[in-house]
Amino acid sequence: MTVPPVLKSPLSKSLKIALIQLKAGADKAANLTKVTKFVEEAVTKSPTLDLVMLPECFNSPYAVSEFRNYAELIPTGETTTLLSSLAKKHGIFIVGGSIPEIAPEEGNKIFNTSLTFSPEGEIIAKHRKVHLFDIDIPNGITFQESLTLTGGDKATVFKLGEFGNVGLGICYDIRFPELASIASRSPYSSFAMFYPGAFNTTTGPMHWHLLARARAVDNEMYVVLCSPARDVEGGGYQAYGHSLVVDPSGKVIAEAGEEEEEIIYAELDKDAIPKVRDGIPVHYQRRFDVYGDFVGEGKAKVSDK
Ligand SMILES: NC(=O)CC(=O)C(=O)O
């Protein structure tokens, strides 16, 4: 039996994070002003903060009909420029939720794209939502991102400075366990998956916590989900809120409410992963001789940015 090597302690230093759960309206400038204020508030309240995360589609309404209208160029668009300057100003990582991206080099296709910035303001990760949210639940919700969006074609894993590797997915991507498996296993050995997401009032109660906890337990890693707050008065897509952080044992260690705009804080403890993996060592007990090499080393298409 071949056991691929994995790191026992993939998080080399505890990481302090803040998740900003905001309501994104139709006014892009107002959305960006709000982001600036919330980031200021987070670093003021937690001066030793390492990372701030934003929700999926934080600069626009989450609507198929609006993605093209709000789409920006990366890296020259105003949202990318703002997030880069905020990361640099405050000396923090920013997992920049997601924004609609227009890609002229790909025939002006629109992607749902998440960027991560280093404390120097550099883009260190770019993930295009791989699995598009095309669903139809009778008496629940019908949504078809593929009407205006194109799916990305790579998993995303990157180095979060001195802390270690992390994986990045967007919302519906969490339903596909492969992305988290690729990130957590050799050769990447990530300590966390970050998913900006906007589940809704139909699928949220069914699956939001379940999926976050499942990905955490499957891989014995941290899972971090940041959602917009539900906007009852604003109408439109009703996001589920409940931004949350799950530890490697599957326990929710921080959670926001549904309709409140708020910041939640958590510390990802460097000792938690080895402790969980020592106790229940599924991470090292996989039987690739039985199930083959379906996420084997070197097979996945992983983004280098
Ligand atoms: N909005 C999404 O991409 C996904 C979602 O709401 C769900 O999977 O449920």
UniProtKB/TrEMBL annotation:
Q: Name one GO biological process term.
A: oxaloacetate metabolic process
Where would I find the CN hydrolase domain in this sequence?
15-270
Q: What PROSITE patterns does the record point to?
A: CN_HYDROLASE (PS50263)
GO molecular-function terms, A-Z: omega-amidase activity
Keywords of this entry: Hydrolase
Keyword Ligase (UniProt): no
Q: What GO cellular component is one of the record's annotations?
A: mitochondrion
Concerning InterPro entries, the annotation shows: C-N_Hydrolase (IPR003010), C-N_Hydrolase_sf (IPR036526), Nit1/2_C-N_Hydrolase (IPR045254)
Top-level taxon of the source organism? Eukaryota
The record's Pfam families line, in alphabetical order, gives:
CN_hydrolase (PF00795)
Name of the protein described by the UniProt record? CN hydrolase domain-containing protein
